[in-house]
Amino acid sequence: MPTICDVRVCQPITANSPDDWRTSIGQILVAIETSDGTIGYGVGGGGLAGMHVIESVLKGLLLDQESEPVEEHWSRLSRAVLPFGPEGIAMMALSGVDLALWDLRGKCEQKTVAQLLNPKVHLLQTIPTYQTVWETVPPEVAAATTGVKLHLGASASSTLSQTAFVAALAKQVQQAREAIGEHRPLMVDAWMTWDLKTTLKFASRVEAFNLEWIEEPLPLTDLNGYETLFQECPIPIAGGEHIFTAHNFRSIIDRRLHTILQPDICWVGGMTEMVKIYALAREANLRVIPHRGAELWGLHTIAALDNQPLAESGRPWMSWVGGQPKIIDGTIQLPERPGFGVEFAPSLFHAPTTKRL
User: Fold this and answer.
1) Nearest Cα to 169, choosing from 153, 182, 181?
2) How much is the pTM?
3) pLDDT tens across 294-328, in order?
């Protein structure tokens, strides 16, 4: 079997990349090349710090090694980052490496990653999507057919009383429901900015608008609060994009903190961990709806492992990811190319707007 001869990492940045952590920390591109010239690609996170983790720690553990078995590589690499961060930036970086190894696995076997996960997968299936919007529903989204997730995180800056604040949030939900109609799915994302009382009051106020879920209403550390919400909130609670590894998801599942699990495959530990999370969720009879699932990395997982497939819209500034299918009439479809089906311009690693160490 060919051996790994090079590991490259960079951070492509486009003109419409947000000027915040989602660009500086949220995304990196990893390329792993084997001695026969095959290249696997993965997207992780951690920004320049994540790139340093790969260059200084993970790369040396991969060079001159066979690309298989991927799961054993994950175990070795995860042990290597234990002293300085089994979560956060180090795991975001490892996610990109793991995805690149899975891309290699698919290319070597001339199969899509979805086929590796489930040989019986229907590659031509159309997967329903939902569109994430901020504060209000734009006209073009209101005129579409997808579900809509209303991001209310910016509303946390409000100086209103709790009663007035909840009333203002409920008004936004009402306007969104009126904009998209009564039959399209509607969800809300609070981005960890509310407290328990606010969330319960909000849920009571908007219950009539038939929300599918409230996403990350509380800070991640408020485990007791999430436990209470699971028991008392009339609207399902979703979360998980900022939780790392299947081990931590097991804790979330065992304590019954969420009804819907939303791991981000580019941050949680890659495909190797995502497969474990799906298995844990099946055992607990919980639903998995991956964060940014319409991006190809998560889309293969949804197509292969999910019996209720639903994909969230991806990052619009990630235009440097070639091969990404478009959402058409509210649905998205996997490409049939081997691996993840992604393509990258050879010049991307040396482009003027690309950051490298």
Assistant:
1) 153
2) 0.96
3) 999 999 999 999 999 999 999 999 999 999 999 99
**205/170 Cα distance (integer angstroms):** 7
How far is residue 205's CA from residue 212's CA, in Å, rounded to a whole number?
15
Cis peptide before 119 (omega within 30 of 0): no
- Distance between CA 310 and CA 146 in Å, rounded? 10
DSSP 8-state secondary structure symbol assigned to residue 283: H
Query: Both tokens of residue 99?
Result: 């995805």
Q: For residue range 15-61, what is the model confidence (pLDDT) as tens digits?
A: 899 999 988 898 999 999 999 999 999 999 999 999 999 999 999 99
Distance (Å, rounded) from C-alpha 342 to C-alpha 335? Answer: 9
- Which residue ranges form the domains of the chain, and what is each CATH number? 4-110+344-350 (3.30.390.10), 117-332 (3.20.20.120)
Strand-pair category, 127-134 with 39-44: unpaired
User: 264: number of CA atoms within 13 Å, CB side?
Assistant: 24
